[in-house]
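Field: COMPLEX_INPUT
Field: COMPONENT_COUNT = two
Field: RESIDUE_TOTAL = 851
Field: MODE = joint
Values follow.
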Amino acid sequence: MPRFSSISELEDYRRSILAKQDPKTKVIRLCDTGCRAKGSPRVADAVEACLNEHGLNGRVTIKRTGCQGFCQIGPVMVIEPDNILYQKIGPQDVPEIISETVLDGNVVDRLLYKDPETGTKILKEADIPFYGHQTKIVSKKTGRIDPADIEDYIAEGGYSALAKALGTMSPMEVIETVEASGLRGRGGGGFPTGKKWRSCRDAPGMVKYVIANGDEGDPGAFMDRSLMEGDPHSILEGMMIGAYAIGAREGFIYVRDEYHIAVKHLSLAIEQAESLGLLGKNILSTGFDFTVQINRGAGAFVCGESTALMNSLEGKVGEPRAKYVHTVESGLWDRPSALNNVETWANVPLIIERGAQWYQDLGTDRSKGTKIFSLVGKVRNTGLVEVPMGVPLRSIIFDIGGGIKKDRAFKAVQTGGPSGGCIPAHKLDVPVDYDNLKQLGAIMGSGGMIVMDERNCMVDTAKYFIHFLMYESCGKCVPCREGLKQMHEILTNICEGRGKKGDLDLLESLARFMVDASLCGLGGTAPNPVLSTIHYFRDEYRAHIVDKKCPAGVCRNLFEYVIAEDRCNGCTLCRLKCPEDAISGEKKKPHVIDAKKCVRCGICYNLCKQEAVVIR
Amino acid sequence: MMVRITINGQMLFVQRHTPVLQAAARQGIVIPTLCYHEALKPYGSCRLCLVEAHRNGRPRLVTSCNYPAEDGLVVFTDTERVKSARKTALELLLARCPNVPQIQRLAQKMGIKTSRFYKKQDERCILCGLCVRACEEMVGAGAIGFAGRGIEKHVNTPFGLQSDACIGCGSCTYICPTGCIEMVGEPGPSAHRKIRISDPDLPPCGQEHRCETCTTNQQFIEEMKEVIRKVRQVP
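Field: COMPLEX_OUTPUT
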């Protein structure tokens, strides 16, 4: 590989890569990150073996990409140049795909995606509603390029934003462009990125740092992971531009060690960028020096908080410290530090390349650009979705997500992870942006969206998140550590039927205290799940406390399963599967549940095809 | 650089970045603390020293032990918001450590009879971190630290093992406001004196503490205990 000593050499190299590419070459794109859980490496091996067998090596290439987004139908394979998408592929399907589609150009009908609404088979990736309703900008390259190959990134226009910034813009112009774009921090707080950079540049000190926060810890969130695994160079390029703007020469990427593919791909990306002269001393002969180091976190949720992350980087206990002096003035090793989420960094090259105005045109008044959400829970199409800011929740959950599984009723969506809030059905038409979500009692967070249906108990949901936070709080300050412990105790009492009359008031007063008095953002937002569920689902809390009933049928002490005589057809399925022998009845006659024997495991409830098992 | 700040309506000039707690003390305003010690770096964990700070028009609760004085800062130390927050913080500590005299006294002072919270424990350590900071910042040994996180956080030696880093100086036992670290004697030279956290019992001795060194150690421990007792009796 060459080592670029000027911007024009980089451009020449890009042209030479593009000249080598033949647009007619068949490229098989296969997700090799998220889909690994569903066996994509075996599929990839089968493809390679099959290509060998047919002597197609060189004429057909297989590209092991990052996450393509539609996790529900994985392993996903797309065959270029026609972009035919095959879903749920196994190694046994590979010979047919190669002989039919790759060699003869026929479509393997049974592997196509079937629209659950209309029942029609869809051939191309872009025509699937899940993809069609999205605006992929930041996650566009993820799932298209090989993250382990810098050539692929350069061919897609990679590092041209860096060249533009270094070659034609002054650091102040970069900051002004980012400010004008309206980009706000994607880690959750939504602080204007340009403003942060300006403060950091203005802060006194010779040594400054840029840091990428890849310590994604929310349950059910994986957008940062997919970016780091599938498009590591975008993050690097963004950091380089940021470092140039604020005057930093060193960068750190903090990744949790559980993300070992992310660590691997980022390390590889750094290595390749260094060998090409895109990292190191005097980059592209512009006099700009920059090096990046990866630090692996041990998986503490609290280390995603900026000051805790910096303590951890310094080798100390991952505890937040007071931010009365901002980290842009006194951060890592007490030096000015600009810390941004990896998704924020990945936005930067796009803004520099296409200009602030282009970015301004996306999104709402005060929230610009797009946001990647991880859509999980009781929704039909789970996966990663990228939409412009301002798209209503309804569109994300119903148009892209395909609605609720088994056509049950939507109940709430939890946004922003454990520190976020639950948004009920009547607020579904609110456009999603930082300010609206905050007004609803939730937060943008890093972009997790957990969809819940009528069978989720909101008290139990609040308890789940408080339990998570209770163990993931750093335990430093009294409001967070002791407050969460007491909050969990109260919620447990309510869920187990020991709720008392004053409990809601006590919860609310404790929550207000925690918001007011906690040391860091974790404690300050921790009561959100409780406050938002009390606000929107007070009746459900009352049912638990006063009537001692759990309407959703989750809290075991507070409901009974009964079989509705008129619906039961006596199929005996529930009787055979009941682990406690609590169900009796003859074939083709209504069955009965013995409430004394029943342990409320829910097996019969979930099994019954007639929905004859009901909650009382 | 000197800056002008206002505390409870009294205007004063202090060095820029002086912690509000120190500035207030100069005016004779007493702010309760549990995790603050003037010889150590402020930690901001007990939240008893909360005050209401007004800067750029926005009032918010901050910990006075580490909030730096800036020009034009306006502070109130006894508003309803402050009092209620301090009270709740102490109620939470009272639920954690109902039998610690220091906590009981503070609760009495603030007019708290019982804690509203259900989960009652019987801990002695309030995790103020004074021992950890004294060991690191003053002694320079760094023999103890925090282990675990969330509700499992506790003070311990590395991996919970007896550590050679501990020089048995007793600083942690001296500084602990709730008396949950005790000195434990062992036969051998004085360097073998160890600390024992959250466990006041002495280990059984095979020689029934008859050896000479042990007797000396026993005396030292008794003396230490007497000193600590005297120190703690002073309100």
